[in-house]
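Q: What changes when pyridoxal-5'-phosphate is included in the input?
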Amino acid sequence: MATLARSRPPVLSLIGNTALIPLHFPEADRTLYAKAEFLNPSGSIKDRLALCIIEDAVQRGVLHEKSIILECTSGNTGISLAMVGAALGYRVHILMSESASIERRHLIRQFGGEVELFKPTNGYATGIELSLEMAARDPNIFLPRQFENPINARDHEEFTGREILSQMEGRVDAFVAGYGTGGTLTGCGRALRATNPKVRILAMEPAEAAMLSGEMPCCHSIEGVAGGYVPPLLRHAQLDGAIKVSSADAIAMTRRLSREFGLLVGTSSGANIIAALRTAVEMGPESRVVTILCDRAERYYSTKLFAH
Ligand SMILES: Cc1ncc(COP(=O)(O)O)c(C=O)c1O
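A: The predicted holo structure follows.
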């Protein structure tokens, strides 16, 4: 996002600079600060990643008329790549686990992207291997490599993290977020730590797949995070710890965010709020804890979140 092309299509200018909203939880007497990433134009934090990686490839002359942008993604990155690809005129092909919600496939196709499903026998790793095999066969394929591309974390450091610092007037005591690629935690963590070395950087992870806590991954319902794989980017995150949140608690809190706060967000947002609230309770009433509302709820209609 750093060097904006003058001719950038208007929809892409809507990415980033999202609001940071205070949310008060009276039962705990704590106020959390939540970055409203669901306000990005395709509805999730992943718009930032799609834009910075594609613009970088354009600037390096890697993309051309026949290029195919190919990525393995549980959904949000696919929607964002399809949106940015549509705006810039590139073909986008998405490899998606069969377990990802059907709404995501529809949204990608609505942007003109192609979707190919795979059986997640080994979590994300299955799809990543498949994408590497396809790229080895077709020279027109461009791989954004969201799980290892350092631009992912760098963009969060330069933009998401600095936006948070400016919106919080430089005072952040803890940052809590889930991880998919680890880009958000690593990048925001770096920006926040550069201002306050004592800031706590904490990962939210599903209780059913608490790999950072040394447990085996299993099925969970917090889509978009912890795909059974600790991504390479996360190794640089300098985490202070991980907070486990169960899928049932995440769903309950996500519904509460809609009913009591009017926020129509996805399940990982509820999970992040629970983890952030626990952190704020532990750190005291004056603590300033920031978290992320990652995406909009409309991509979860067919999931447990709407089963009521
Ligand atoms: C739905 C969703 N998308 C994206 C992210 C962030 O992922 P990443 O680690 O890839 O930056 C999260 C993390 O909480 C998420 O829940």
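Observations recorded in class: The longest strand covers residues 30-36.
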